[in-house]
């Protein structure tokens, strides 16, 4: 579900109005609410089962890769950039979050997040959100690495995007490979982390 909020007066701009509206929403337990490119979006968590399974596999293996270091993987928390609030499937942030809370303690400041990963949602709006709108939003926020695991791209693909260009809302570099191929995170705290069949499953025989 997407909610668009009109301006509410000369002293409150659109971004602030959307932010206030987002704060007032009390979603059902199985839903998350985000602000993506000025729109409030609500979506169901962990649906379908394979989506949640992939995200949990990714988080578990990231935890092993980052073990004993200053960073850790996170789930079920908001990342806040400006007046946008995202609920990524998995992201990497400092293990000690002291001093890293964003506005009002409603999430983690995007400037401290070196990697965000999304497992593409199955519905058409979810697919567009993860492939297009969040890609732009994360680049605009300067997130260094965006990982996209996409069950709905042919037989399944993994994309690793790096080199954000905030002023153009794009990433300068992209590696996109089919399931069954190992894709390696090239930089940041998760440098060398391998995304392969153990996370995505094998290359599917049918799209």
Keywords:
207 residues, 31% strand, 24% helix, alpha+beta, single chain, six-stranded mixed sheet
Protein architecture, described:
- The protein is an alpha+beta fold.
- Helix content is about 25%, strand content about 30%.
- It has 4 helices and 14 strands.
- The strands form 4 sheets. The protein has a 6-stranded mixed beta sheet.
- A hairpin with a 6-residue loop joins strand 10 (about 145-150) and strand 11 (about 155-165).
- The protein is globular and about 50 Å long.
- The two termini are about 25 Å apart.
Q: Which series of helices and strands comes N to C?
A: EHEEHEEEEEEHEEEEEH
Q: How many DSSP-defined strands?
A: 14
The residue fraction in helices comes out at 10-25%
First CA to last CA: what distance?
A: 26 Å
Uncertain residue segments: 5-11
Order the strands across the largest sheet as they lie in space: 4-7-9-10-11-12
- Assembly context of the chains: single chain
The radius of gyration over CA amounts to 17 Å
Summed up, what is this model?
The chain has 207 residues and is α+β, with helices and mostly antiparallel strands. The protein is built from four helices and 14 strands.
Layout: helices, strands, pairs:
Blueprint: E1 2-3, H1 14-24, E2 31-36, E3 39-44, H2 49-66, E4 71-74, E5 79-81, E6 84-86, E7 90-94, E8 108-109, E9 115-119, H3 124-140, E10 145-150, E11 157-165, E12 170-178, E13 183-184, E14 194-195, H4 197-200
Parallel strand pairs: 5-8, 9-10
Antiparallel strand pairs: 1-3, 2-3, 4-7, 5-6, 7-9, 10-11, 11-12, 13-14
